[in-house]
Fold this sequence. Notes:
Elements: H1 2-20, E1 22-26, H2 35-42, E2 45-49, E3 54-57, E4 62-73, E5 76-89, E6 96-110, E7 115-124, E8 129-141, E9 144-154, E10 159-170, E11 173-187, E12 190-205, E13 210-219, E14 224-235, E15 238-248, E16 253-257, E17 270-272, E18 274-276, E19 283-285, E20 295-298, E21 304-307, E22 309-313
Antiparallel strand pairs: 1-2, 2-4, 3-4, 4-5, 5-6, 6-7, 7-8, 8-9, 9-10, 10-11, 11-12, 12-13, 13-14, 14-15, 15-16, 15-17, 16-22, 18-19, 20-21
Amino acid sequence: MRRCLKLFLIVFCISSVVATDVFAVAAGKEGKRPRAAKQAEKKQQVVLTSDGGLEWNSVKKTLTAEKKALVVRGNTAMGADKIVAYYRDAANGKDSDVYLVKAFGNIIITTPKQTAYADTAVYEIERSVIILKGNPVKLLAGQEQMTAEILELWQNEDMAVARQNVTAQKDARRLEADIVKAYFVKRGSTSQIERFEAESNVTIISDKEKVQGDTGVYLVDKETATLQGNVKISQGNNFIVGEVADINMKTGVSRLQMLSEKGKNKGQVHGVFVQGDKKGGKNVPAEKVKAPAAVKEETSDGQEANEKLLSSSNEGE
C-alpha cells in the first residue's frame, strides 16, 4: 500500500511539473560538515524548470528538462539547454532526494560570488561542488575574469579551482598557470576574489614586465605577488633570474633573491641586459655579461656572509 501511495505522490508531482514547469524536492543527505551547514542545507530545495516540459524516468530515477532548462538551489541558479536531475528515495519513504545534476550546452551559473559560463557541468549536491568543462570555461567575479578548460566551484569553501590553460586577468595584469585556486571573500554587500594561488608554469604579465616561476601567490587588493622556484623577471630582451621574487604591481618594483640551504652560501642572482644600437635601433647583445658582484660582509667570527640581492624598478630605477 505504501509503495502505491508513494508512486502516486511522485506521479502527481511530475504531472504538476509538466503543467507548471516546476519540480521541487527536499535537498539530499549531507556529508560530514559542521552542524550549522547541515541545518542550513536541509531547508534548501532543488527546483527544476523548463519551457519544454519534463521527462520522468522512474527506472533510472531521473528528471530531464530541455529547452531553457533551469535548476535552482538556494542562491545558486544554473541554466542550460538540457538538465538531468538524479534522485533517490528518502529515508522517510515519502520524499525524493536530488543528489546530482548534470547540465549540457550554453551553461550559465550565477551565485552571489560569481558568474560562470561552460559547455557541460556536474553539480554534486551533497558536497556543494560544481565541476564545469568548456572551451573554455569562463568565470567572472567582480573585476576579475578567469578562463580554463576545467573549473571547480567549491561553494562551502568559498573557493574555485581552475585547471589546464588557466588565465586570470584584470585590466593590464594577466596571471597564467596550469592550476589556479581563487579564494573569495565578502566585502560589504559584495563578494570578490581575495587571492590567487598558482601552481606549475606560473606567469604574471603586466604592461611593464613579465615574471615566471614554479609557484606563486597573488594578493588582489594589494596588487602584490610572490613567486618561487626558477624565477625569471624580464623586460623586453633584458632579464634577471633567481629563486624568489616579490612583485609590486602598484609601484612597479620587483625584488629578486636566492634561497640558501643550511650550511651553504646563497647562489647568485644574475641578469642579462641587451644594449640598444643607437644608429639602427636594433638590440645588440652585451659583451660577456656576468653575474653581479657579491656584496660581502665580515661577520664577528671572521667568516664571510654572502648576500646577493637585486632590485629593479620599472620607473627608471
